Amino acid sequence: MTDRPLNVLFLCTGNSCRSSLAEQLLNHLGQGRFVGYSAGSTPTGRVNPHAVLALQRRGVDPEELTSKSWNEFGATDATVMDIVITVCDNARGEVCPIWPGHPVSAHWGLSDPADFKGNDAEVAAVFDATLNQLERLIGGLLELPEDKRIREGLEQLRKELTPGEA
Questions:
Q1: Residue 162, domain member (yes or no)
Q2: Whole-angstrom Cα distance, residue 142 to residue 86?
Q3: Which of 11, 23, 87, 118 minimizes the number of CB atoms within 10 Å of its CB?
Q4: CATH at 132
C-alpha cells in the first residue's frame, strides 16, 4: 500500500445528483486523505442544476462535476478505487463492471432528490436535506483513523474477497 489518498467512487444510475453531490462533498471535506469520484450506469450527460445550486449554497465548488459512465472506471487503465459506494437502490441492483484493484463496496440508499416535485424553495430544501445526509455519511469516512490501519484493513478485505490473488 502507498501513502496516496484513498479513492472513493460513488455510483448511481444517472450520475446527476446523489453521486455527484457525494463526489464534490468528499473532495471538499476530505482534506487530501480521500479523493472522490462519481459515475452512473446510464449517465444523463449533465449534473442536475439543483445539485449545483445546493453545493454552491454549502460553499462547495461544483465546477469540476461532469456526468460520466461507470465504464470508464472499470477500464484496465482506470484509477484504482479503494472504496465503491452505491448511493441509490437501482445502481445497487445492477451488474457493475469489474473494478480494478478489487475495492471494498458499501451501499448508502438515498432517495433521489430529482424525483421531488415542488416550488423552488421546496426543491432546494430537498436537495439540501440530501446533502446533509451525505455529509453525515461522509463524516463517518472522515473519522477513520489517519494512520495506516485503514489501508491495512482495506488490503486485508481485498485479500479476503479475492482469495488466490497476490
A1: no
A2: 18
A3: 118
A4: 3.40.50.2300
Residues 17-62 have pLDDT tens digits of: 999 999 999 999 988 889 999 999 999 999 999 999 999 999 998 8
Catalytic residue set: 12, 88, 96
Percentage of residues of the chain with pLDDT beyond 90: 49
Q: Is the pTM of this model over 0.70?
A: yes
With left for phi above 0 and alpha for psi between -120 and 50, is residue 73 left, alpha or beta? Answer: alpha
Number of domains the chain contains: 1
Mind spelling out the 3-state secondary structure of 54-99? Answer: HHHHCCCCCCCCCCCECHHHHCCCCCCCCEEEECCHHHHHCCCCCC
